[in-house]
Design brief:
The protein is an alpha/beta fold. It contains 14 helices and 6 strands. Strands 1, 2, 3, 4, 5 and 6 form a 6-stranded mixed beta sheet that branches.
């Protein structure tokens, strides 16, 4: 018969092998998010009765867990019940009740419909700046596509094929990169050049031009910006410079049929690329270590919610690594 000590021994063994979630619990003060969650999710209806809701910080941690591993609501419910590391991360005992998939979905829906989920990201970004992990020594801007399954609108009337119609994402659209078509949304990211932490971001349909969205993720504190050739152009550069009077632009210049880089610009391109490419490490980590960049939700509102938590979960994971160094 298994005892409490057997479970403790197993957990200790998992810790010795390197449990990333254990490190996350030691570097993030989850209670800091409680007031913000209460404020965002407060309801007018305070009538007594009904089933008691799960703790909001617990549900918030579940969404971080989902973003770290990119698993569905149903699979997440199973994994929490099955995995000791997930239970320890959520501070749940074997006999504790676990939120089911529907409860997780409803919590996400409430948060997404509030339109205020980015406040949680901004809170943590301010915390990172306060403890000195965001250096503001330079900012890298770029965008990556979060894909949605390619679907065609049903030819049947909505009343005859309601379920199929609900699965069609009418907010998502197409972009073309590397001679391939991608369907979904763009995550426009501003990252600290030194620590590779995301300081700001915005979410748009995939067709939105990277350069045109750049002013929306920059502010007056961004005085040195690194970017690829997609951010070059008279109007784009003027909009970026308008964000700060001391703005220094470092944008790669490529041969495009009209301009052939001189030896000076080739050296400059090499210098800029060595810094700019660090943002690709962020996107690579999301694609490889965080279960990929495929969206399971439909619509801009839900996709913005999913991408917000992906960025927040990445920052939390990255913080643990930086502090351990």
């Amino acid at each position: 018969m298994k005892t409490f000590f057997d479970i403790e021994n197993r957990l200790q063994r998992l810790s010795d092998m390197g449990d990333a979630l254990l490190k996350l619990n030691t570097t993030v003060n989850w209670e800091d998010f409680r007031d913000a969650l209460e404020n965002i999710l407060k309801t007018i209806d305070n009538r007594a009765g009904g089933r008691q809701s799960f703790d909001k910080v617990l549900m918030f941690k579940i969404l971080i867990l989902q973003s770290l591993y990119n698993i569905s609501d149903d699979n997440l419910e199973f994994q929490i019940n099955d995995r000791l590391t997930f239970q320890r991360f959520l501070k749940l005992d074997i006999g504790d009740k676990v939120p089911d998939a529907k409860t997780i979905w409803l919590f996400k829906e409430r948060l997404a419909k509030s339109g205020r989920e980015k406040e949680l990201f901004d809170m943590y970004a301010i915390h990172l700046e306060n403890i000195g992990l965001v250096t503001k020594s330079g900012s890298i801007i770029d965008a990556t596509v979060f894909e949605r399954p390619k679907q065609k609108a049903s030819e049947k009337p909505k009343s005859e094929n309601t379920h199929a119609e609900r699965q069609i994402d009418r907010d998502a659209n197409f972009t073309r990169k590397y001679n391939k078509n991608f369907h979904g949304y763009k995550n426009h990211v501003n990252a600290d050049a030194s620590t590779k932490l995301i300081t700001n971001f915005s979410v748009t349909p995939a067709s939105r031009h990277d350069g045109k969205e750049a002013p929306n993720i920059l502010d007056s504190s961004d005085t040195c910006v690194y970017a690829d050739a997609a951010y070059r152009g008279k109007h784009i550069e003027a909009a970026i410079i308008s964000k700060s009077t001391q703005m220094q632009l470092n944008i790669i210049r490529k041969h495009d049929g009209f301009f052939e880089p001189t030896e000076y610009y080739k050296i400059e391109n090499s210098r800029i690329s060595k810094i700019r490419e660090r943002i690709e490490h962020i996107f690579g980590h999301m694609a490889k270590a965080m279960g990929g960049k495929t969206l399971r939700c439909v619509g801009l509102t839900r996709s913005r919610m999913a991408i917000t938590f992906k960025n927040l979960a990445y920052n939390m994971y990255r913080t643990g690594y930086l502090l351990s160094r």
